[in-house]
Structures are given as C-alpha cells and as structure tokens.
UniProtKB/TrEMBL annotation:
This is Ammonium transporter. The chain crosses the membrane at residues 15-37, 49-72, 103-121, 128-149, 169-193, 214-232, 252-275, 287-304, 310-331, 343-361, 390-418. SUPFAM superfamilies: Ammonium transporter. It holds the Pfam family Ammonium_transp. Its main location: membrane. It is a multi-pass membrane protein. GO terms for cellular component: plasma membrane. Keywords: Ammonia transport, Membrane, Transmembrane, Transmembrane helix, Transport. It comes from the Eukaryota.
Length: 467
C-alpha cells in the first residue's frame, strides 16, 4: 500500500533525527580520544589515540557481521537471550529496523570498547586491543543489548511476548547498564589481570601520582563527550515526530527536550559536587577530577534520563559524584590502576544509575517513553520512592547483577587467556620507554620534554638490542 505524503514526511523527519543523533554519538569517539590522550603520559599519547581509531574501525566490522544480529536479530527462531538473524545486515531494512537504526546502534557499540581501553592504557600490547575490541563490540555487548533493548529480550520493558520481568522489565533507556556498566566491568577485569603500571605504587604500596600530560585535551574531550551525550540520551527515543494522545502540543519532541535537560543537570551537579569534594579531600581545586565528575553524572543519568523529573536528575548527579569519589579511594586501597578511572566511573556510576531509575522513575514519563504516551496498554511499574512498588527496582537490581556476571564470565577469561599467552601486557623495558616509541615508531609530539630517552624508533631499537 502506498504511503501518504504525511507518513513519508514523518518517516523522513524521524530518519534525519536518528541519523543526526548517530553523528552526535560518533563525535563521542573524538571526545574519548582527546580525554584518553590527555589523561596518559606524553610517551603513550599516540598509542591511546590509535586504540580509539581501532575501536571504531574494528567495531564497525564486528558489529556489521555479528553484533547487530546478536542484539536485534528477530525471526521465526527468535529467543529472549540472543538474536538469530540480520547477520551482515541481511534482510535489512525491515518494518522495524533500517540502516539509520543500525548506524545509531553501531555508534553505541564502539563506545563500549573505548571505555574498556582506558582502563588498561599505557601497558597493553596493541594486538590485544584488536582481539578484545572485536570480541567486546561483536559479541559481549550485543548480547546485553538484546536482553534489554530488543522487543524479544527477557529484561526488556517493551517485550512483545507480553511477559515482563516482575511485571516491569528493566528501564535502561540509553544504557547506563547496557553500555557503561558493560564497558566498566570489562575494564575492571583487564586492569586487575594486567596489574598496575610500573611505578604506580612504591615499595611500601603507597600510590605514586601519574598525572596525564595535557589538561587541555582532557577538558576538550569532556566537552566533546558532553556534546555527544545529547545524541546518546535524547536520541534514544529513535523517533521525534510522535504525538502523545489526549494532549494538544506534546509528543516525543517534548520528552526529547526534557531528556536533554535532565542529562545536563545530572552532569553539572556531579561536576560541582566533585569540585568541592576533591577540594575537601585534596586541598586544591582539581580540574581533571571535575571533568570525570561531570562524566560520572552523565553516565548515571543515562538509564533514567527520559523517565525522571529534572529535580531528580540533580539528586542523581549528587550521589554519582560521591560514588565516583568513594570508588576511586577504594581503587587506590586495593591497588587497582585505572588511568582513566573508567571502571569506577562507567561501572560504578552506571550501576548507581540503574538503581536510581528504579527509585525515581515517574509513571507518566515511563508511559511516554515506552508506550508513546498511550496509557492503559499494559500496567507499568515506576519508581519505588514515587509509589510505584518493588517491580521496577527489582528488575534494575537484576540487570546490574546479570551484567556483572555475564561480562565477568566472558571478558575475564579472555583477558586471562591473553595474559597466559603473553600477548596482553608489554615488557617492562617497553613500558618505561613508552608505547609510542616501542610500538608505533615515535612520539606523538616533536618535543617530548617529559622523557629523556630515545627520540626515534631506530634509537630505541639500538638501545634495546644492546641492553
């Protein structure tokens, strides 16, 4: 049947909106690259930037071949645990999915690998990046995405089977758990198995400060990520031209705007709280800690961004800052070396974001986000503290637990296998010299004032061979 011109225009506007959101999320790769580069020492800047490029390139192929199918594949053999169709985009587009949707989801997938690479920065063999990036973006992450975001997923709040977990399903609107907790737990296992960088802790076990070499890049990366998050969270509505019934002027466009506001408020609050929190703990105003605090607030609100009031987003950011500060203190106590604080930031704040949603999700907004504003389609659980009962918070806790177990049982053994095969961590000599010169032919900068070692790859090899 031929579509009316009204439907064609609506579909076109929605496609443009989703594509623009995908472009914004992809800009976050540049943000990750700048943040990572500034957070490591100058002798490893080229290495960490290259890993961000590789995450995007390798993730493109793995998500095209397998990942999208595992995440959203539906067909006669569909099941609640893993997708079974659409491999290499076969049979795409369909009535539910098209190429713009694939591109948007691909941008999410490559972000997960970027999170993990920060946890194991400055000491990892480049070949190991290729292996874990392909596996994480092509298999581990898509399975979790299927559970929560596919209409046939067992955790999904939009399950087509009509049977929702605890009569609720888990609300993880833009991926505090699906994206950030997955990346954070993967990074945690990588950092634990590799161990700390040389010199990170002294002979008495006390931490030695290893500051990143360029605060400018860190701030630039933070603002690029902030910009990209406006595609990450509001863009997760997928369609903007969806009017809500029984209202004169409200639709997805209203919820999209509110989602951008809650995102901004959570990140801003977390940044301010981190600023003063670090002032109390360290005695000075720490710009780099504030940047991570802002990102922690964004990570936490990502789950409930579309279903909470702006005032609740401020609470979310407030507690996210203390979660991050507390986990950073614990990380030092247990000698966990994560140069980007990725496990604490994305893992800890991601887990808090899921719990927060179970406490503060508003019934009206849940109906808007998952039923296009049409009440009565099915009973919807909402925030426990708003009178919505235990169903939603129970589903949120289950999501946290299964993600931790799933990623631990997949990425943990992979990192351990790479470690046993001696292809995970570089040698001490290479680490001291720096990955840029030992693995990539030279430093990222012409003048490298931080190090007094060899300036070119040939010089490094002559010293290495003579030692």
């Amino acid at each position: 049947m031929e579509l009316s011109w009204e439907s064609s225009v609506a579909d076109s506007i929605n496609a443009i909106y989703l594509l623009f959101s995908a472009y914004l999320v992809f800009v976050m790769q540049l943000g990750f690259a700048m943040l990572c580069a500034g957070s490591v020492r100058a002798k490893n800047a080229m290495n960490i930037m290259l890993t961000n490029v590789v995450d995007a390139a390798v993730g493109s192929l793995s998500y095209y071949l397998f990942g999208f199918a595992f995440a959203f594949g539906e067909g006669p053999n569909k099941n609640p645990f893993i997708g079974t169709s659409f491999f290499a985009l076969k049979d795409i587009p369909t009535s539910n999915y098209d190429y713009s949707f694939f591109l948007y989801q691909w941008a999410f997938a490559i972000a997960v690998a970027g999170i993990t690479s920060g946890s194991i920065a400055e000491r990892t063999q480049f070949s190991a990046y290729l292996i874990f990036s392909f596996f994480l973006s092509g298999f581990v992450y898509p399975i979790v995405a299927h559970w929560v975001w596919s209409s046939s997923g067992w955790l999904s709040p939009s399950s087509s089977s009509g049977s929702l977990l605890f009569s609720s399903g888990a609300i993880d609107f833009a991926g505090s758990g699906v994206v950030h907790l997955v990346g954070g737990i993967a990074g945690l296992w990588g950092a634990l198995i590799e161990g700390p960088r040389v010199g990170r802790f002294d002979a008495f076990g006390k931490p030695v400060i290893m500051r990143g070499h360029n605060a400018t890049l860190v701030v630039l990366g933070t603002f690029l990520l902030w910009f990209g998050w406006f595609g990450f969270n509001p863009g997760s509505f997928n369609k903007i031209l969806v009017p809500y019934p029984n209202t004169a002027d409200q639709g997805n466009w209203t919820a999209v705007g509110r989602t951008a506001v809650t995102t901004t408020l959570a990140g801003s609050t977390a940044g301010i709280v981190t600023l003063f929190g670090r002032r109390l703990l360290a005695g000075h105003w720490d710009a780099l800690a504030v940047c991570n605090g802002v990102l922690g607030g964004f990570v936490a609100i990502t789950s409930g961004c579309a279903v909470v009031e702006p005032w609740a987003a401020i609470l979310c950011g407030f507690f996210a800052a203390w979660v991050l500060i507390g986990l950073n203190i614990l990380a030092l106590k247990f000698k966990l070396d994560d140069p980007l604080e990725a496990a604490q930031l994305h893992g800890g704040c991601g887990a808090w974001g899921l719990i927060f949603t179970g406490l503060f999700a508003k019934e009206e907004f849940v109906i808007q986000a998952y039923d296009s504003g049409r009440s009565g389609l099915q009973q919807r659980s909402y925030g426990l503290l708003l009178g919505g009962g235990w169903g939603l918070i129970g589903a949120q806790v289950v999501e946290v637990m299964v993600i931790v177990v799933w990623v631990s049982t997949t990425m943990g053994p992979l990192f351990y296998l790479l470690h046993r095969l001696r292809i995970l961590r570089i040698s001490i000599d290479e680490e001291v010299a720096g990955l840029d010169i030992s693995s990539h032919g030279g430093y990222a900068y012409n003048a490298n004032e931080e190090e007094s070692g060899p300036r070119f790859y040939g010089d490094y090899m002559r010293i290495h061979n003579n030692s």
